[in-house]
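Hey, can you fold this one?
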Amino acid sequence: MTETRPRARGPIAALAGAFRALYRDPVVVQALRSTAAATIAYVAALWLSSEPAPLTAPLTALLVVQVTLYSTLTTGIRRVNAVIAGVLIASGFSLLVGLSWWSLGLIILASLIVGHMVRVSEFVPEVAISAMLVLGVTRVADTAWDRVLETLIGAVVGLLFNVVFVPPVWVSTAGESIDDLSRRMRTLLLDIGAELTAPASVETAAARLREARRLDNDVADVDAALRQAEDSLKLNPRVKEGPLSRVVLRTGLDTLEICAVVLRVLARTMTDLARERRDEELFPQETARALEQLLRQVAGALVAFAELVTAQVSENAATAERKLATGLEAAAAARERAAALLLAGVRNRAPHWQLHGALLAEIDRILAELDPEHRSRRLMEELDRTTREERVRFPAPKAARRWLTGRGHRN
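Sure. Predicted structure:
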């Protein structure tokens, strides 16, 4: 019996893990939420509208429901305006000219013009889309008000759906993206370090440079995940320290982005050095081993920094901070040893000394960016800036407090 239980639990545990992974996937969550909201909107429209197939309601619900509550509330009104404008345009054209190839062109042109007039911003194309969809469903102008009613039903259902069923907080997803980025940077540093003891190869160094350049795409992907996480924190009742979490993640990504840029420059320096010393040793063996150890320590510090950034959200910051401090201390010691060996090597081998200095300066820049004191100052600056922006954007609470305390009457 004891031998069969792990086998019985194995598939169940794997299935449960798969479901958890799907629930954490924004694409899956959005598909499920949109489907549910559209279905509820259709049922409500069947009950409230006289139309036998009120498809405008689920259409509007699909457009209104977004991944986060903040994006739903900020874009919902513009989307509703776009759909209503499209419905009215389609109803008017069905009364006047009906549907033909030339009237379809006029409908699209009129919808795009009206979309700019009603100020629906980025949803101007949805005015034309809504008009064409509604015109395809019915050509009877008498149903215009029913279509408007269906649009309002879909909008209300979409808004209430995200209010009642609060969307997930995507901080963990953004944290995983930041951690993955740091590990890709770590792998690149380890690869560069492992090649220091081999004869110089321009092709290998150029390949590492291309990998470093591809980090820009990785940073852009993490930035997109972080923007979604920031939206999920806004107006979300599940979150108690939304501004702090946003600033922690954003400043962490900013630091890793700077390190990625410096890492690209470092890879370029290694490529130039390999080109100058083709088929020779890049460094003497002792210096190469010291630099390899230094890059290994820097790589570990990058991962520790990413763990600190994500741990601040999960209340494990103290452990992560100690790990980062230990990693930076080891990196600093390795840096001093490598610097001494590089200096001695320059004295014995003067050509290309500037590349040695550039390599050391680039490593220093990465270590400076990862320094906890530098990060603390950066966090305080961003928190102060965020607080000032919130006060400018929402001055009413501050004015109300001044009025209640009587300060507003002092001259």
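Residues 55 and 137 are 8 Å apart (CA to CA). Let me know if you want another pass with a different chain boundary.
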